[in-house]
Amino acid sequence: MAQNQSAGFSTIPPPSGRTRVEDGHFVRTPEPSFLANFKESVLGFLSHLAQVYSMLIGALKGATRRPFEGKAILAQLEAVGVASVGIVVVSSVFIGMVMAVQFAFGLRKFGGMEYTPRVIALSFARELAPTMTSLIVGGRIGAGMAAEVGSMAVTEQIDAVRALGADPLKKLVWPRFVATVVAMPLLCGTALVLGVGGALAISVWQFDLPASFFLQSAIGAVTLGDFASGILKTPVFGGLIALIGCHFGMITRGGTAGVGVATTRAVVVTSIAIFIADFFLTKLVIAIFPV
Questions:
Q1: Helix or strand or coil: residue 107?
Q2: Using 50, 70 and 90 to split pLDDT, how confident is the model at 269?
Q3: Could you tell me if residue 216 is inside a domain?
Q4: Is 50 among the domain residues?
Q5: DSSP annotation of 111
Q6: Are 168 and 250 in contact (CB under 8 A)?
Q7: How does pLDDT run across 183-207, given as a tens digit for each residue?
Q8: Is there a contact between 192 and 121 (Cβ–Cβ < 8 Å)?
Q9: In which element (H, E) is residue 196 found?
Q10: With bands split at pLDDT 50, 70 and 90, how would you rate the model's confidence at 29?
């Protein structure tokens, strides 16, 4: 103990909180205030937003130069769209069934069972099909993009692309962006049809509603404006999914642990971004296509 003290170091364990070593002793520094933490969070958010915007502009500029990455876009369409059909089918059918059960039981109390097809069709067309599909598929796609691009970042493959004179934004971001923007409306349309089909099946089987009546009511309730108000959101959702996934992938550091962190952050931020964008897009679409 004397030797430790003569060497200038205290044997007392360091205090909790943020500490620094000064003259051989642990000195506790004051915790940052709430305003300091809030300011740091806001600056970090603005920094990420600026990086995403810069990445989008760079990808759009790179898309105007040859080659146009047609094969890469088709490969990403298969990975993003075709590979997501299974999860869309299962989720949309069972969401439709759950909605049919909930609305049928609720409306039956008030003698309004015949309104079940209309409510379900409008809900799917305007909100459930675009938003739920984007959330479910976005988690899968965003995580995959962040993991794939992040693995390339930590293994210095992106630096190798730059060293060869190619543009990583054109090679990596642009094909994923185009594929996701194109695939999301198609997946949304598939979810709409299958969701209403699942509601039709459970309504006929459990609540004895005629299939012809269900289809006539559902189709009659949904107008072109209702369909457009939902389907027009999905390209924006698709673009957000691709940009956020690629962004967190390209800034990945710290080996395999960093890839896991980037994947988690991409999924969380993608979900929050879809909810926020959905609010503003809904306000805009209602102004264009009034209910």
A1: helix
A2: very high
A3: yes
A4: no
A5: T
A6: yes
A7: 999 999 999 999 999 999 998 898 8
A8: no
A9: helix 174-207
A10: low
Residue 234 has a pLDDT of: 94
Q: Return the higher-pLDDT residue of 38 and 201.
A: 201
Separation between Cα atoms, residue 63 and residue 57, nearest integer Å? 10
Hey, how many other C-beta atoms are within 10 angstroms of the C-beta on 204?
15
DSSP labels for 15-45?
Answer: PSSSEEEETTEEEEPPPPPHHHHHHHHHHHH
The total domain count for the chain is 1
Phi, psi of 202, rounded to the nearest 5 degrees: -75, -30
Structure tokens at 64: 């105007």
Q: 61 lies in a domain?
A: no
Q: Are the C-beta atoms of residues 168 and 158 closer than 8 Å to each other?
A: yes
Q: Both tokens of residue 219? A: 């189709």
Amino acid at the residue 133: T
Q: Which two tokens stand for residue 193?
A: 């049809």
Which structural domain, as residue segments, surrounds residue 143? 86-288
How big is the chain, counted in residues?
291
The answer to whether residue 138 is domain-embedded is yes
